[in-house]
Design brief:
It contains 4 helices and 4 strands; from the N terminus they run αβαββαβα.
Length: 113
């Protein structure tokens, strides 16, 4: 049994290397509503999470920021957002698309396997 498992793992690694496959990750569309004075903090927190800012809208007191952020980077975001905005911002998140994982992260995933 162990020999068959080892052979299957070796065959998969060999085929994966020859196929030039890519690893995909889910990208979420994140909308953050925040007071204007915390807009810079929200931009910084989204950029730290590999987010790409799509649009911003401002009115008299609030700013609505939309960004595409990998799902793997969104864990713990509620706590970070609360800290960065003194609890005055909120966010929503929905699936947007799949996108290729950056090479450095893909290499780390492959080595981990």
């Amino acid at each position: 049994d162990i020999a068959f498992q080892a052979a299957a793992i070796g065959a998969f690694r060999n085929a994966y290397a020859k196929a030039a496959a890519v690893i995909l990750e889910p990208i979420m569309r994140v909308g953050v509503e925040t007071p204007l004075k915390f807009q810079g903090n929200v931009f910084a927190s989204l950029n730290q999470r590999r987010g790409v800012i799509i649009s911003t809208e401002e009115d008299q007191q609030f700013s609505l920021i939309e960004a595409d952020v990998p799902l793997s980077e969104m864990f713990g975001y509620a706590t970070d957002l609360r800290s960065a905005t003194q609890g005055r911002a909120n966010y929503s998140m929905e699936f947007a698309k799949y996108s290729e994982v950056p090479a450095s992260i893909a290499d780390a995933i492959i080595k981990k396997q």
